[in-house]
Amino acid sequence: MHAVITGASKGIGKAIAEKLAKEGCNIAICARNAATLEATAAAIRQQYPAVQVLAIPVDMGDKQQVLDFAARINATFPAVDILVNNAGIFVPGALHQEPEGLLENMMAVNVYSAYHLTRQLLPAMIAQRQGHIFNLCSTASYKAYPNGGAYSITKFALLGFSRNLREELKPHHIKVTSVSPGPTLTASWEGFEAPPDRMMEPEDIADIVWASYTLAAQTVVEEVVLRPVLGDIG
């Protein structure tokens, strides 16, 4: 099996990469920070030496870098079985107070990157009539909230992309799943003090991805929303 995970150097992306490697998947991973990415790749290679790990530093907000990453994947893997569009940035703030250009930047990273990468990897998936695409959305994809700003807009858009992709790929037997976590213990929440029982573990999200992938061929989880037992923070 061959899998691609974007934004995989830490947090949810890293947990998913580790889970898929543990299950025997060759993986292609990317992140902006080359040093952090290489550290993650080295740890996975050491723990799972039989697994092929392609680690490429990529700014997912740069279309050409996304296309170059896709080309490397297509040259390395015969086809992708699992694509996890996880790369994203989170900047809270009210729409009328956000800096100029923030929406465009966040759309490029949170939405356009998934669009461009998916389009490049789909032909091989369609040719083999199988594959599973996971789009990491958010509870913010379903419910607007104060100071959601540009971030919330991008997550609504990503869910729309995922739903449209689901309908288009039915005839090709390619599954599409939107995974929407609430507060999860990742770098996005650094500096925020919250009791441990108010935050989910990234490994739980990774387990959901793998469980969804391993269902019968005729079954797909279209959307899954995860929250801490005590609900959202705020």
UniProtKB/TrEMBL annotation:
In Swiss-Prot or TrEMBL terms, this protein is called: Short-subunit dehydrogenase
Database matches in PANTHER family:
DEHYDROGENASE/REDUCTASE SDR FAMILY MEMBER 7B (PTHR44196), DEHYDROGENASE_REDUCTASE SDR FAMILY MEMBER 7B (PTHR44196:SF1)
Supply one GO molecular-function term. oxidoreductase activity
Q: Does the keyword Cell membrane apply?
A: no
Keywords, alphabetical: Oxidoreductase
What species was this sequence derived from?
Chitinophaga japonensis (Flexibacter japonensis)
Query: Into which family does the record put it?
Result: Belongs to the short-chain dehydrogenases/reductases (SDR) family.
Superkingdom is: Bacteria
Its GO CC terms are: membrane
* Entry-linked SUPFAM superfamilies: NAD(P)-binding Rossmann-fold domains
> Which Pfam family, an example, fits this chain?
adh_short
Q: Does the record's keyword annotation contain Oxidoreductase? A: yes
